[in-house]
Amino acid sequence: MAEEKLSAAQRSKIRRLSAPKELSPDEEGGELNIVPFLDIVTNVLMFVLATVSVTFTATIDTSPPKLGGGAGARAPTAPTLGLTITLVPGGFSIKARGGNVAPGCKDTGPGLAIPKVVGISGGEDYDYASLTSCVKHLKNVSPDFKDETQVTVSANPDISYQAIVSTLDAIRKDETTGDALFPDVNFGVAR
């Protein structure tokens, strides 16, 4: 049998089909580059760790106000103080079981129980020391109030957050003696 000679077109086709195929860039068989993915995961992890540490250091323990008495609610057997402190632009308005607390915190009557005082900077500031002594006085008015720990705090919308936090600090504990005053704070809505 005689050997058949291939034409130029046939030889070209054989060369083309037997040559290794060159892959396109999206079909490359190299390693997967996961460095950008790891960068994103590391950044998210650092953000979560930083956020969690701040969350635990900036909390104030309070209880939400209770809505309605429910069917099982009973009237308390002992009288309660029912202390409510409202921050207003002019000072502290305090209400107790007997009604509004009068200026000076000694009796009941109209007006602000503790008005603002001239502060160190020359402007008016809330008198937190007088607030502490006032709630301490109200707690000691009757032996029935000695064990009471709940207070409701509300504020007008234009009151600063720092003023509210300082008020909570002033009514929770007497810093001079270390005695707990009203550690269980409920937030109310100013009306």
UniProtKB/TrEMBL annotation:
<keyword id="KW-0653">Protein transport</keyword>
<dbReference type="InterPro" id="IPR003400">
    <property type="entry name" value="ExbD"/>
</dbReference>
<protein>
    <submittedName>
        <fullName>TolR-like protein</fullName>
    </submittedName>
</protein>
<keyword id="KW-1003">Cell membrane</keyword>
<feature type="region of interest" description="Disordered">
    <location>
        <begin position="1"/>
        <end position="28"/>
    </location>
</feature>
<keyword id="KW-1133">Transmembrane helix</keyword>
<keyword id="KW-0472">Membrane</keyword>
<keyword id="KW-0812">Transmembrane</keyword>
<dbReference type="Pfam" id="PF02472">
    <property type="entry name" value="ExbD"/>
</dbReference>
<dbReference type="GO" id="GO:0022857">
    <property type="term" value="F:transmembrane transporter activity"/>
</dbReference>
<dbReference type="GO" id="GO:0015031">
    <property type="term" value="P:protein transport"/>
</dbReference>
<dbReference type="GO" id="GO:0005886">
    <property type="term" value="C:plasma membrane"/>
</dbReference>
<keyword id="KW-0813">Transport</keyword>
<comment type="similarity">
    <text>Belongs to the ExbD/TolR family.</text>
</comment>
